[in-house]
Amino acid sequence: MGLVCKSAITQARVRLGEAPLRELFRRVARPPAVPGTPGAWYRQWRLVSFDGTTLALADLPAVERHFGRPKAARGTSGFPQLRLLVLLETGTHAIFAAVVAGVVTGEVRLAREIVRHLGAGMLCLADRAFLGYALWRDAAATGADLLWRARRGTVFPCVRRLEDGSYLSRLYPSPRHRQRDLAGLPVRVIEYRLPDVPGGDPVYRLVTTLVDPQAAPAADLAALYHERWKDELVLAELKVILPGGQPPLRSRRPDLVRQEVYGLLLTHFAIRRLMYEASRHGPCDPDTLSFLGTVEFIRRNLPFHAAFSP
What we know:
The protein has ten helices and twelve strands. The protein is an alpha+beta fold. The protein has one domain: Alpha-Beta Complex (Transposase Inhibitor Protein From Tn5, Chain A, domain 1), CATH 3.90.350. A hairpin with a 2-residue loop joins strand 3 and strand 4. The longest helix is centred in the last third of the chain and has 28 residues. It is globular. The two termini are 23 Å apart.
């Protein structure tokens, strides 16, 4: 009986396909915070960030052919994997855009798709792996402002030192362009130290489109950037807490793997939206509410709604 039921569910999922869930996520997932939501804004800018992760999948030939299996220290990993890049609202942790691909696809390539969801009035935070001329140019062209960390070896010539210690510079496509001062994009560079962080870098460098130190002081932006570190917690909610802490994902076909990922994204967004609404009744910072506690509360209350259509 259990096998028959499981087979029927799989057939129903196959008939449904990935597209309806992907389209539903595209339509409903929006940054929920309104002006005044604690932690969601810096002055007039809505804070957003993007980051990537991998998800382990069922160890089946068809799944491996489609998504790939990453290399490991002793050959290859135990499971095939997919790569997921998400764009989220920093203050509410609500994911409102995502890109799914095979594990061999680099995060920078996926970021070219995710930045299309940026827009005017946003301040986007991103890690040092993403800072490059083409991606920066495309992200800035959306009208959003950017605050990204720079790699240690990236060269930024000082054009003019500003009163808050930051300096104006240019981001170039290549060293040759920099030597000839060709096609440079105007940026502002902020350098600072975190002496009390064990294992931290000697100097942290941020690059931003916010070139006016009066509108965005360097000390503010340095403190603000580290909100991005919470992205790792959001990714853990998606890949550990919601699946029940038992990788890999259960789907045994590539199309159903993608369907399952969008199901997880929709569920995560619904929970985060519920947490945001609860914080408004508090009122409190949405960041102070427990995601795991909310999931457990929802699970305890599901039997009371069993008569209603999903």
